Amino acid sequence: MSSRVSSVLRPGLFAGQVAIVTGGGTGIGKAITRELLYLGCNVMIAARNLERLNKTAEEIRAELPSQGAPTLETIQCNIRKEPEVVNLIATTLEKFKRIDYLINNSGGQFVSPASKFRLKGWNAVIETNLTGTYLMCREAYNQWMEKNGGVIVNMVVNMWLGWPGAAHSGASRAGIVNLTKSLAIEWAQSGVRINCVAPGSSIFSDTAAANYGEYDLFKSNIPSIPFKRLGNPEEVSGVICFLLSPASAFISGETVKIDGAQSLYSPSTVYEIPDHKNMPAYDWNKDAEIVERQKREQAVKSKL
């Protein structure tokens, strides 16, 4: 097997198992797909852009052994559209007869001040990130996991200090974290574990650079990362595979941050607040003066 496909976990760990990876054609999703295949897992990758998805599948299949390799399939799916999500789960079951793992990697946002969001843009981000994740979880559960168990990993982001410039995405990802906690309780009786991973803004991939700017945009984060470097998609996929594995059999409802301790160190340097005087300190003395004046005025009125 090509050295481009590898894992810190033992080969064959997921032999005979089946996973769905949304957004599996690029960036972190592509790394997840590669590592799952290396570990012996059959994978269905889904995304809106079928042409790009098929191109990725051809590239990855060329890295696999000519004999005995797990199966990689593709399907077009917009996770915002309920019928397409229903079809994705049903098609996977028709092809593989089971679903052991669901990795909700699809998501997106655009950069804008919150005051400038149009409702259409707000709804698009909320529907993609939060509603899409919910639909994927619901259908995987209803069509298979309720009776057979399984493991789900949801993708969120480093939004613990808010996400200025992408408030719509921050709100939706916070919703995913709470959804994950709720489902971890509701679905435990069905043998379903569900967790989140939260890559920081420090995870660099060519796809992310193309979407959000050149390398310098990511490089500007390095001073706020204790590790003093950017992360890579494989450092995310490895954690996801751990959460899918028996090694995390007693973990559910949790969120693992993958950010080089950035969320503990300082906020991102990408968003800077300009100097202003619009948040003056409260003046207790001035307030006391007003109260005293009101008392004096009331005393005068009482004597009249």
Features:
304 residues, alpha/beta, Rossmann fold, 10 helices, 12% strand
Short description:
The chain has 304 residues and is of the alpha/beta class. It has helices at residues 27-38, 50-61, 82-96, 119-148, 167-186, 206-212, 215-219, 233-244, 262-265, 284-303, and strands at residues 18-22, 42-47, 72-76, 101-104, 150-155, 192-199, 255-258.
Domain count: 1
CATH topology: Rossmann fold
The number of helical runs is 10
Which parts are unreliable, with pLDDT below 50 for 5 consecutive residues or more? none
- Beta-strand content estimate: 5-15%
Oligomeric status: single chain
Give the strand order, joined by hyphens, for the main sheet.
3-2-1-4-5-6-7
Overall spatial form: elongated
- Give me the Rg, rounded: 24 Å
Q: Would you list the SSEs in sequence order as H and E?
A: EHEHEHEHEHEHHHEHH
User: What structural class do you assign from the helix and strand content?
Assistant: alpha/beta
